[in-house]
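INTERNAL AUDIT FORM
Audit reference: QA-55
Scope: verify that the stored structure record matches its stored sequence.
Auditor: D.O.
Record contents follow.
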Amino acid sequence: MDFTFTEEQQAAVEAARAVFADVAPDGVPSPALTPGAVAEDFDRPLWARLAGSDLLSLVLAEEHGGAGLDAIALCLVLREAGRVLARVPLLEHCAAAMAVQAHGSPELAAALLPAAGRGTLVLTTAAHGRSGHDPAELAVTARREGADWILDGTQTAVPWAQSADWIAVPAHTGEGDAVLALVPRTAEGLALAEQVSTSGERLAELALDGVRVDAAHLIDAPEAWERLRQLLATGTCALALGLGEAVLTMTSQYTGKREQFGFPVATFQAVAVQAADRYIDLRAMEVTLWQAAWRLDAATGGAGGPLPSSGDVAVAKIWASEGVRRVVQTAQHLHGGFGADTDYPLHRYHAWAKQLELQLGPAAAHEEALGDLLAAHPLG
């Protein structure tokens, strides 16, 4: 397998590293010491720097002011964001923009995408259903009324919804079809209830009561929501990979300096074996991430495989949800009591890792889904 990235993808990584270089993971109050959200808004100065470096328009076509890159490039940038716990809706914003670009009407694309690329308009996505466990498209109903659509239902844990301008909301029509509606945050009948993530960031429960959506703002292409759902999952795996790599680096540096019995603890076999196991976890997370991202781009280009791309995404989710948990747990163990010190950033990485694990869902569920795919698509 060739994991060589293109010059454009490598340039995106370099730009991201430059933007994230000054980001402090502990730049806001600790979630362990804050009863509510750690901040009212996401990191707007960082958002402006991302826009100024053309990273918010990375996946947009040239006609919308973008660079025309792919899901792999987005995941490369998200990996860098995960390393520093960047407090921006980069994944949700770019994934929603890609859905609008690929499947939305020309009027919707022209209205949202240029401003989204400049960062003056913020997009987010409601992707967790009523409880975080049921399919998101079943949590909201969409019915026609004249030339418009009417939305009713509830979505939970919408990231930074209070700060977004538009929210991508999956819904079902009652006929087995999933649609995707782009809803302004200020729409009549839309209400947001405060929620807080495990990492201390603002979420919202989104309640829709007879929200009227213009037909041009509803995407009824059958593959639009499934593609967006897979992109969000793959991007979350990229965030988990970046976070895990930062944590293992932090652990390596600490155990290399911390001494017991006159020797660095990193030289002890038990410590080295645990760190090596976590390194293997990260490499498995990496290879399955790039396989999933490549399949998403290949499927868009018409290339197929023995299984649908959802199979590759399921494998990436299995490794990411299990792997990121094991990495931070081992890091806490090897740091000893120092890892729980709220003046040291490891506890923040642990909280973010748990939030990402919850977003990805349990590995057993993805293994079951993968088994269903294998049963439906015999490889022989």
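Auditor finding: record pair retrieved intact. The beta strands are 123-125, 140-145, 148-159, 166-172, 178-184, 190-196, 202-214, 218-219, 259-260, 263-264.
Action required: none
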